[in-house]
Amino acid sequence: MTPEDFERKELLSYLRTPSLDENLSAMLESCLKSLCEVIEPRTIWRVLPVEHTEDGVKLGGFLLGGKDIAKHLTGCSEAVLMAATLSGKVDSMIRRAQLTDMTKALLYDAIAGAAIEHVCEDLTAALRAQLPYEYFTERFSAGYGDFPLTQQADLVKMMDATRKIGLTVTPRMTLLPMKSVTAVIGLSHSPVTDARRYTCGNSCALCPMRDDCAFSLPDQ
Amino acid sequence: MDFRTLLRDEFVFLDGGMGTMLHLAPGELPERLNLTEPQRVAAIHKAYAEAGSQVVYANTFGANPLKLEGTGVDCTESITAAIRLAKKAVGERACVALDIGPTGQLLQPVGSLTFDAAYEAYKTTCIAGAKAGADLVVIETMSDLLETKAALLAAKENTDLPVIVTMTFTENGRTFTGCPISAMAITLEGLGADAIGMNCSLGPREILPLMRELSGWTTLPLIAKANAGLPDPVTGEYYITPEEFAGFMLAYADCGVQIFGGCCGTTPDFIRAMRKVLSQHHRARRIVKPRPAVCSGTKTVLLDMPRVIGERINPTGKKRMKQALLDMDFDYLRGEAISQTDAGADILDVNVGTPGIDEAAVLPQAVCAILEVTDLPLQLDSSDPAALEAALRVYPGKPIVNSVNGKEESLKTVLPLVKHYGAAIVGLTLDENGIPTASEERFTIGEKILHRAMDLGIKREDVYLDCLTLTASTGANGPTETLTAVRRVHNELGLQTVLGVSNISFGLPNRPLINRNFLCMAMQCGLTLPIMNPMAEGMMDTVRAFRMLAGFDENCNDFITAYQDTAAKPAAAAPQDQGDMTLKGAVAHGLRADAARLTEEALKDHAPLEIVNDMLIPALDEVGADYEKGTLFLPQLIQAATAAQSAFGVLKSHMTAGGEKADKGKIVIATVQGDVHDIGKNIVKLLLENYGYQVIDLGKDVPPQTIVDAAIANQVKLVGLSALMTTTVGAMEETIKLLHEQYPECQTIVGGAVLTEDYAETIHASCYAKDAKATVDFAKTVYGD
Predict the structure, then answer these.
(1) Could you give the 3-state DSSP secondary structure of residue A187?
(2) Which residues 182-211 of A have a C-beta within 8 angstroms of B?
(3) Do A60 and B675 touch (CB under 8 A)?
(4) DSSP secondary structure string, B113-159?
(5) Confidence at residue B663, expressed as pLDDT on a 0 to 100 scale
(6) Which tens digits make up the pLDDT trace of B220-267?
(7) Fewer CB under 10 Å: which end of chain B, C or N?
(8) Rounded distance, CA A190 to CA A75, Å?
(9) Can you tell me whether residue A22 is helix, strand or coil?
(10) Residue B630: what pLDDT?
(11) What are the Cα distances from residue A216, in Å, to A21, A197, B7, B113?
């Protein structure tokens, strides 16, 4: 990744600030450059059959918990199970900065948040181009709605993501490296109705998640 | 069949993929099949043995107590069944290996698994495997060097079986956790593996160049067990044919690989094809030159030129460091590690020996804390063998042990540790009679240490000698004798040489000048490992200039990189607007350097606490008020806090020197058990410290009872807890419950992404903090303004 891959406005939304002074802007640029040097994006995905049952929706034969993910995959015959990570070096960089300059740590953390989103977006775009489906749902992750976070370990196992991209899960279901994502994307030949759509901070006024979203921008 | 006998052959053939052959249904657990469908597993072993595998891996890859927890499958039962069924299936045709894979969790400090927990899990596995009759232990598909070490130690310490180890690399020559090939090689060879190599992740084409590199780093037999190419993401299938795969193996034999097999996507046909291709071939004889090197889990330092050992993490003569150790303030150690790393040190010495400290308990903790923030290899510095062993166990890589000396007692206790854990050793040239004055006698003691080490099997290149710097003021010949001894060790023994450089100037004026000159003279005599302060004026400059002039710095690249910016800059840029800037203003605008400088100035006329109360806190209050009003945001708030922090740094060293402490009250804070997200907690810590509270930071993933114990021991009035996940707020509730039971007068404040005011009330926290600022506000009400 390169600094040019990031919109500055987007980074500000991750920092939850409408603007930065000259000093902080310069710091942001330098952090962006350093972080881009250590990011090693890695992704893995599998296309798995979706089966709607009385107990809920099954993905690749595995029952996913909660009603929301079932709703999300309505009308989908298959779904992509994906994982993405920025690698452990990013975590170390953020950790180290917390001891030397907390401002930098905050900037790194925000940039890494944006970066993992980019990696997911890029993968989604590639999947849209590559897979023989017309309609794709948004990404839906364990922890969204009533899709239990406790299934994180099972999702990682289904993709063999520890072996394939070095993604691990702690006993309390934290993904490590920290800047990582697992998600399900529904595939369909007819229009899909997402259970929810997480948006990006660019259109807060229209977003249904506006009131709960950690990234919503202050009114400008 | 005996595996070590097999190793006398030109080639040894392992098996191929197990998962590939099992065709698991969704959710099916391979280790359960040993008990429920033994014939299904046995058929695969049989097929491999018939195809010519001389070693089959029992179906125990995930059979450790950590991975099997909650599955209803007992680790020992599964392993016992797996080994027995494999032995029955292959008979005398093949050895049966206990197969050990990763736990699937990351070890501390990155993850939450402790070294001891990983070791215990592997110990259970190894004992079960050996008891069931495994012929060897295979540790495979490893990514983390420390976890690999835990498995290898568990195998070596609990069984007599041969142990072979393969790790899994990405195309950049590192594992997912950043372990380079060289670090893997020197660490595992030191720990006594019987053969090492690579498996999984990549196909034979991609692994080949990595094997070539590995071949130059070890004298051990090499193992290659590649995947059948890269899988198709849609189908998960592999496409390389057995013949294509086998075709690559000629090149592997040409770089000296002896042990062949396959990983994901390979089948008995691949083994057959490899045997066929290699039957007419010989493996290349490898000439491996000894390369003196040490490493951490993520970085190897080759000792091919003078390398600097940073000396700052040592309480001797350093009040601030001593206090940090007594307070268990590991952040201070981490800070010293970062500044030495940034200053250009190659290796860091770690010494925690000071009265009141249990070295055996603290040294391993210090090692883990330091490795959280630096890649540099460490030198474990203690005279207590128990402390050395405790640190050697948890160190990921090949460290230096500082030190052994010529005394019988020292040789007998320290050298076996060095051998067992595969470390390098610094030998001090002194013995029962003290430090000899003459270089001749120091050289003799050095030789004795070398021979005693080699008698135990420690490699010659892993013995470094310290000919001891004596203070120049004690006698005219002192420095000359030291330098003569260094020259002889370097020239006649060809060993690495170590010296604590700054001892030379003790008790003399203008110490930096003496230190720089002595350093330069010593390097010219063959000093390769100066122990010194890399931040001290001119010291790194001297090392860089020496490396460049002595021909260690090709095209002067490193030298130019280090100094090109200084050439362009005016000598000393005067701080701007110096006249107008106040300390308050510097903090409010987040100017760290100015804040520190203005604090130094303020100390001339004001007491430290006056500066805190009348300048720093009002500035922070103003910034905090703007933050609450929404006219200023988190980055600006934190920037002001870091500026205040740098002011505090100045005050703290001033106060420690005078025996004072900033103390508005002690507060214990922690991220609760199971949770490893702690940036929020660290921001809270920063702000609390800014307001003069003494924060006892227990870190992340802290068990409830540890938090309660710390609160009671320090008699704090307030405990702050942070949790970021719905899965960890339970641990927060548990902590508060224990606190109420054991220390009811203590108040609690909680925060973190998933918490709400309502939830905080439900778990009986005294206060909910919506942000770091709210914690400070509550602390003020608890401790009084």
Answers:
(1) strand
(2) none
(3) no
(4) B-HHHHHHHHHHHHHHHHHHT-SEEEEEEE--HHHHHHHHHHHHHH-
(5) 75
(6) 999 999 999 988 877 778 889 999 999 999 999 999 999 999 999 999
(7) C
(8) 7
(9) helix
(10) 85
(11) 20, 14, 63, 35
pLDDT in tens, B614-645: 899 999 999 999 988 888 888 999 999 999 99
- The reply to whether B373 and B238 lie within a common domain is no
In a domain, B471, yes or no: no
> How sure is the predictor about B571, in pLDDT bands with cuts at 50, 70 and 90?
very low
Q: What is the CATH number of the domain that holds B94?
A: 3.20.20.330
Q: Is the pLDDT of residue B383 over 70?
A: yes
Looking at B397, B432, B452, the residue that finishes a domain is B397
**B269/B313 same-domain check:** no
Residue B503 located in a structural domain: no
CA distance B675 to chain A (A): 7
Whole-angstrom CA distances from B402 to B389, B449, B488 are 12, 13, 21
Name the residue range of residue B757's domain.
Answer: 583-783
Confidence bin at B569 (pLDDT 50/70/90): low
Query: Would B544 be classed as within a structural domain?
Result: no
DSSP B298-316: S-EEE-SS---EEEEE--T
Is there a single domain that holds both residue B200 and residue B77?
A: yes
Nearest-angstrom CA–CA distance, B626 and B24: 60
Q: What is the pLDDT of residue A218?
A: 53
- Chain A residues touching residue B726 (CB < 8 angstroms): 143, 149
Residue in the structure block whose two tokens are 């280790």: B31
3-state helix, strand, coil in chain A (%, to 5): 45, 20, 40
**Is the predicted pLDDT of residue B783 greater than 70, yes or no?**
yes
For residues B592 and B730, membership in a common domain is answered with yes
Write the DSSP string, A71-128.
HHTTT-SEEEEEEEE--HHHHHHHHHHHHH-HHHHHHHHHHHHHHHHHHHHHHHHHHH
* Domain CATH number, residue B686: 3.40.50.280
State the smallest CA–CA distance between residue B751 and chain A in angstroms. Answer: 15
Q: How confident is the prediction for chain A on average, in pLDDT?
A: 88
Q: Which two tokens stand for residue A57?
A: 């929706």
Q: Count of domains in chain B?
A: 3
Do B359 and B231 share a structural domain? Answer: no
pLDDT at B258: 98
Q: How many CB pairs under 8 A join A and B?
A: 139
Substitution target from B638, B677, B728 for chain A, most A beta carbons within 10 A: B638
Please name each of the domains of chain A with its CATH number. Answer: 3-206 (3.40.109.40)
Distances (CA, A) of B449 to A52, B405, B425, B456, B708: 72, 7, 10, 11, 48
Per-residue confidence (pLDDT) for residue B785, from 0 to 100: 67
Q: Which H, E and C letters describe B202-267, residue by residue? A: CCHHHHHHHHHHHHCCCCCCEEEEECCCCCCCCCCCCCCCHHHHHHHHHHHHHCCEEEEEECCCCC
Tokens of B693: 């509270």
Structure tokens at A160: 């063999």
Q: What are phi and psi of A210, to 5 degrees?
A: -45, -45
Examine residue B554 and state whether it is found in any structural domain, yes or no: no
Are B59 and B124 found together in one domain? yes
Same domain, B272 and B355: no
Among residues B334, B369, B397, the one where a domain terminates is: B397
In tens, the pLDDT along A137-157 reads 989 999 888 899 999 999 999
Q: Which residues of A touch B732 (CB under 8 A)?
A: none
Count other Cβ atoms within 10 Å, centred on residue B157: 12
Q: Do B142 and B264 reside in the same domain of the chain?
A: yes
A20-24, A130-134, B151-155, B451-455: segment of lowest average pLDDT: A20-24
* Å between A67 CA and nearest CA of chain B: 18
Amino acid at residue number A46: R
What are A62-101's pLDDT values in tens digits? 999 998 899 889 999 999 999 999 988 999 999 999 999 9
